[in-house]
Amino acid sequence: MRRYIVRRLASLAVVLWGVSILAFALGSLAPGDPARLLMERTLGHQATDEEVAGMRQELGLDRPAVEQYVSWAGGAVRGDLGTSWSNRNDQVSDLLLERLPRTVMLAVTAMLTAVIVAVPLGVAAARRRNSVTDHASRVAALLGASVPGFFVAYLLMFVFGVRLRLLPIFGFDSPQHLVLPSITLALGSAAILTRLTRSSLLEVLGEDYIRVGRAMGLRSRAVLFRHGLRNAVIPILTVIGLSFGHLLAGAVIVEWIFNWPGLGKLALDGIHARDYPLIQGFVLFTGTVFVLMNLAIDLAYVWADPRVRFQGQGA
Fold first, then answer.
1. Ramachandran area for residue 130 (φ above 0: left; ψ -120 to 50: alpha; else beta)
2. Which 3 state secondary structure label does DSSP give 83?
3. Distance CA 189, CA 205 (A)
4. Class of domain 93-305 as given by CATH
5. Is 8 exposed, middle or buried (0-12, 13-18, 19+ CB in 10 A)?
6. How many CB atoms lie within 10 A of CB 130?
7. Spatial separation of the C-alpha atoms in residues 249 and 292, rounded to whole Å
8. Helices (H) and strands (E) in the chain, counts
9. Where are the domains of the chain?
10. How far is CA 56 from the centre of its chain?
11. Model confidence over 143-198: pLDDT tens digits?
């Protein structure tokens, strides 16, 4: 077990190194001279070549790219992601940590909503295969996976915010502000989870040991939940983990539409301002989130499947 975890951590370190190179390259390869853009935004008029050269030296952009990356990556290892150009010279790490709790709140609420809706619906569809419940769940899952998130967001805003006036549309002032964006985010994940729960459970229920259990007189509920769902949980855990990472790191459009002050809105503001340190820090942070979620999924495998535990101990 310990060797398994150490091996996974070593592979994740290599992945994080690759993510750091990608994050740095995104800023380095972006069009335009960041020093000139920053000077013109600060001065309010076109900057001279001497002023731009001085700003490039101040920002360290006159150094070779490899030297810039080593300096930036070394700071990132220590938790220093540089200074934001568009947020009063605040530290990027401080800005990310300030917005992180709001995005975590939104992602956790959306993920819990998706799981609470999708898993029972998928189980009911598998238990009553080819019934009205099954067909209805498949149609609902198809619609949920097909409809774009921004369309759902504007539809919910129009119905519940404008027409019915039941829920607020913008901001972060009360728990009611959490309802519409979390439902918007949960819809796509719930659709995928419903279809996956149904298909995984149907596959497990067709195994020989399930038929043996039924022949031995086990109750249908015990066969379904104790033996069926437990062995079908591996792909479900995978999708839950990856979906949560996506919700945590990729809710950019939803946060912007609902004016939710989270990481996504911070990243969009940084893109509009061409704040390269902020963009690089956001990419590295979100990549790290996905990597850690993959590690959490692997550890959940060890809990759910004894075969994974055996392989980990024997490695």
1. left
2. strand
3. 24
4. mainly alpha
5. middle
6. 8
7. 12
8. 16, 0
9. 2-77, 93-305
10. 34
11. 888 888 889 999 999 999 899 888 888 888 788 889 999 999 998 889 889 988 88
